[in-house]
Amino acid sequence: MADDDVFFIVYYYFGPTWDNESGWRPVWAPNGTYALALKIARRIATEGRQAQVHAYRNGEMYTLDRPVYQAG
To answer: What parts of the chain have a pLDDT lower than 50?
Structure first.
């Protein structure tokens, strides 16, 4: 992967942890495409969990200007 490649990761929320860490955990989008990341996030939402999509480029994380996906 080149240094300036962008890839996307989906995070899902499972609740606060015993040691007060964030309850968000990553789910890797295998080929890193935005379309696949959105599909995974929507699927997680249908299972009753919240999901967010983040973009990574050059080791930096960017939260996309998208809502948290959630069931409902």
So the answer is: 1, 3
Close Cβ partners of 8 (under 8 Å, ≥ 6 residues apart): 29, 32, 33, 34, 36, 37, 53, 54, 55, 56
Yes or no: say if 27 and 36 are a contact pair by the CB < 8 Å rule: no
Q: Are 41 and 8 in contact (CB under 8 A)?
A: no
Tokens of 42: 């929507």
Tell me, yes or no, whether 1 lies in a domain: no
pTM higher than 0.90? no
Enumerate the H helices of 1-72 as residue ranges: 34-46
Does a structural domain hold residue 71? no
69: in domain: no
Range of the domain at 21: 6-63
Residues 6 or more apart whose Cβ sits within 8 Å of residue 72:
none
